[in-house]
Amino acid sequence: MSAEPVKGPLRPKVGAERGTFRMGNSRIKRVGLPRWYWADIYHWMLTLTWARFFLLFSTIYVATNLFFASAFYLVPGSVSNARPDSFFDDVFFSIETLATVGYGYMNPGSTYGHVVASIEIMLGMVEVAVVTGLLFARFSRPTSRIMFSDVAVITPFNGVPTLMLRTGNERSNLILEASVRASLVRRETTQEGQLFTRFYDLKLERDQTTVFALTWTIMHRIDEQSPLWGKTQQDLINEGTTLTVGVSGTDDTLNDFVHARQSYSAEHIFFNHHFADILSDKLEGDIRILDFSKFHDIHPDGSEGGTMPGAAVAHPG
């Protein structure tokens, strides 16, 4: 009987959250910095989700039209052919003016109306230019579909304890000149008794590949030079250890640089487990099957749940 695969918890995220920066299970809050810097508006708008982005500009659009409609409504006669005391007519006139689509039946009816309409037209052109630029920047920004395994494992490989994790390319294209870097972050106490956060770059079995198309098992040998040498999972937990991994390369479709990153807290590093084999030896015609449904599955060492990791997908392909 094959052992049931062990599925670890969802991997933690790396990056900014509201008011904090998350790395592994740690959440860090910045204090002592200026609360807002106007030049960061562009960067902030690029990082918004699509839903929030469209909600923001829909709100600005509605607020702008309501503001100018109120300006027309406060001075009777500002809009010719508008029904008396009809705020809705002023709103529709404002929408036509902001979009510069032509007035049709209604038009500015006084000097005041012309001045307000001119200001609104100028503001409308600025808003259209800003939104167009932001939409282009968001659509043209290169993104990757690089996936990472939910957990990392430590298992013997060729007789040496080895830290392993998986990464895969979810798109049917190539990432050229791909490279990977892995770092270990943990808290240490210096001889002076100060608590210090240390970063250790991990030496990998392979940190570059000409072509990254399918999967890549990233491996670090735990020898005497490794910061993981002699460590247990409880040691990693006590030290607040976080494993961070970054993959980068050139997307052959966009011909642009792409990258992805992930982090694993100590609870997401499974000792004495190995990844399930996802590359089938059976052929369907002349095709071998790569089963991504098992991408995150791990088994205890010594089980029959799969061959030792790396036998089929130790190298990118």
UniProtKB/TrEMBL annotation:
<dbReference type="GO" id="GO:0005886">
    <property type="term" value="C:plasma membrane"/>
</dbReference>
<keyword id="KW-0406">Ion transport</keyword>
<keyword id="KW-0633">Potassium transport</keyword>
<keyword id="KW-0630">Potassium</keyword>
<protein>
    <submittedName>
        <fullName>ATP-sensitive inward rectifier potassium channel 10</fullName>
    </submittedName>
</protein>
<keyword id="KW-0472">Membrane</keyword>
<keyword id="KW-0812">Transmembrane</keyword>
<dbReference type="GO" id="GO:0034765">
    <property type="term" value="P:regulation of monoatomic ion transmembrane transport"/>
</dbReference>
<dbReference type="InterPro" id="IPR014756">
    <property type="entry name" value="Ig_E-set"/>
</dbReference>
<dbReference type="GO" id="GO:1990573">
    <property type="term" value="P:potassium ion import across plasma membrane"/>
</dbReference>
<keyword id="KW-1133">Transmembrane helix</keyword>
<dbReference type="InterPro" id="IPR013518">
    <property type="entry name" value="K_chnl_inward-rec_Kir_cyto"/>
</dbReference>
<keyword id="KW-0407">Ion channel</keyword>
<dbReference type="InterPro" id="IPR016449">
    <property type="entry name" value="K_chnl_inward-rec_Kir"/>
</dbReference>
<dbReference type="GO" id="GO:0034702">
    <property type="term" value="C:monoatomic ion channel complex"/>
</dbReference>
<keyword id="KW-0851">Voltage-gated channel</keyword>
<dbReference type="Pfam" id="PF07885">
    <property type="entry name" value="Ion_trans_2"/>
</dbReference>
<feature type="transmembrane region" description="Helical">
    <location>
        <begin position="112"/>
        <end position="137"/>
    </location>
</feature>
<feature type="domain" description="Potassium channel">
    <location>
        <begin position="64"/>
        <end position="139"/>
    </location>
</feature>
<dbReference type="Pfam" id="PF17655">
    <property type="entry name" value="IRK_C"/>
</dbReference>
<dbReference type="InterPro" id="IPR041647">
    <property type="entry name" value="IRK_C"/>
</dbReference>
<keyword id="KW-0813">Transport</keyword>
<dbReference type="InterPro" id="IPR013099">
    <property type="entry name" value="K_chnl_dom"/>
</dbReference>
<feature type="domain" description="Inward rectifier potassium channel C-terminal">
    <location>
        <begin position="146"/>
        <end position="298"/>
    </location>
</feature>
<dbReference type="GO" id="GO:0005242">
    <property type="term" value="F:inward rectifier potassium channel activity"/>
</dbReference>
<feature type="transmembrane region" description="Helical">
    <location>
        <begin position="53"/>
        <end position="75"/>
    </location>
</feature>
